[in-house]
Amino acid sequence: MFVMISEMRKGGQVEEVFDYYVVPSRIVSQYTQKYDRPNGARYSIQRKLIEKYKDKWSLFGSPN
After folding, report:
1. Torsion (CA) 30, 59, 53, 21 in degrees, nearest 10
2. Exposed, middle or buried: residue 9 (CB in 10 Å: 0-12, 13-18, 19+)?
3. How far apart are CA 62 and CA 56, in angstroms?
4. Cα 45 from chain centre
5. pLDDT value at position 28?
6. pLDDT reported for residue 56
7. What is the pTM of this model?
8. How many angstroms separate the CA atoms of 56 and 19, rounded?
9. What is the CA radius of gyration of the chain?
């Protein structure tokens, strides 16, 4: 099983750019940190721990 993580960042003057990470769920469960806040929990994972999964669509295998 995989988890899809997206990150929105500024790409230029106005446009927004999305980065996508296709991360195995075991990696996500191992490295995700939970932060409790008054209005609900926030979950975070360090980008350096998942960088090698950026645009790793091949993990899904061939569509054929």
Report:
1. -90
2. exposed
3. 12
4. 8
5. 92
6. 92
7. 0.71
8. 11
9. 14
Query: How far is the C-alpha of 28 from the C-alpha of 5, rounded, in Å?
Result: 10
Q: Two tokens at 8?
A: 């929105």
Tens digit of each residue's pLDDT (9 = 90 or more) over 1-53: 888 888 777 666 656 778 889 999 999 999 999 999 999 998 899 989 999 99
For residue 59 the two structure tokens come to 């993990």
What residue has token string 């645009």? 55
Q: φ, ψ for residue 46 (rounded to 5)?
A: -70, 130
DSSP-based three-state secondary structure for 61: coil
Q: Which two tokens stand for residue 64?
A: 């054929």
List the structure tokens of 37. 């806040």
Do you know the residue count of the chain?
Answer: 64
